[in-house]
């Protein structure tokens, strides 16, 4: 059954080409609004899943996949554009691709997905905010947040590696 949290995750995936269309067309305001709505669905799907015990096997795959596809797609669009220095989305993209690929491998090996840490959740929230602000042409605060997100993203990525290795090594013994 496709519960509300899974529908919200699916909606987040379906919104990717919509906000990318507006982004690539140079309509950053509309792209920011749609991207922000997409980010809100990320919060809401988790909230409803936990509050109403609507977690599912599909949701454990669909939600993180929607998260990563959303972030990866907008970071690639930011690399293509000239609205922020290219090295910023490249650094963030490397981390996101690493986690996306390693999550997939971990899952294919039969292990549960690694839940994001609090630092990872804060990092992603600030990344969503930085992207939305920059698209809304709030240059200074948006760019400043990117510089806050980079070290948070790197540290949470390292924490993800540590958690994954601990989980894998505990299952080997």
Automatic annotation (TrEMBL):
It holds the Pfam family CDP-OH_P_transf. InterPro entries: CDP-alcohol_PTase-I, CDP-OH_P_trans, CDP-OH_PTrfase_TM_dom, CDP_ALCOHOL_P_TRANSF_CS, Phosphatidylglycerol_P_synth. Keywords: Lipid biosynthesis, Lipid metabolism, Membrane, Phospholipid biosynthesis, Phospholipid metabolism, Transferase, Transmembrane, Transmembrane helix. It is found in: Membrane. One of its GO terms (cellular component) is membrane. It is a multi-pass membrane protein. Its main location: membrane. One of its GO terms (molecular function) is CDP-diacylglycerol-glycerol-3-phosphate 3-phosphatidyltransferase activity. GO terms for biological process: phosphatidylglycerol biosynthetic process. The chain crosses the membrane at residues 20-44, 65-84, 118-135, 141-161. This protein catalyzes the committed step to the synthesis of the acidic phospholipids. Belongs to the CDP-alcohol phosphatidyltransferase class-I family. This is Phosphatidylglycerophosphate synthase. It comes from Iocasia fonsfrigidae.
């Amino acid at each position: 059954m496709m519960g509300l949290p899974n529908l919200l995750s699916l909606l987040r995936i379906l919104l990717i080409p919509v906000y990318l269309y507006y982004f690539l067309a140079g309509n950053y305001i509309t792209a920011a609004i749609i991207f922000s709505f997409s980010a809100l669905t990320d919060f809401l799907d988790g909230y409803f899943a936990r509050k109403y015990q609507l977690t599912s096997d599909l949701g454990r795959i669909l939600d993180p996949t929607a998260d990563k596809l959303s972030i990866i797609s907008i970071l690639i669009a930011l690399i293509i554009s000239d609205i922020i220095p290219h090295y910023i989305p490249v650094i963030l993209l490397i981390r996101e691709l690493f986690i996306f690929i390693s999550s997939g491998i971990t899952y294919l090996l039969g292990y549960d997905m690694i839940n994001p840490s609090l630092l990872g959740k804060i990092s992603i929230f600030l990344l969503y905010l930085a992207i939305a602000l920059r698209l809304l042409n709030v240059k200074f605060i948006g760019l400043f947040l990117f510089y806050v997100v980079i070290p948070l993203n790197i540290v949470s990525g390292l924490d993800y590696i540590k958690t994954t290795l601990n989980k894998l090594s505990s299952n080997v013994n």
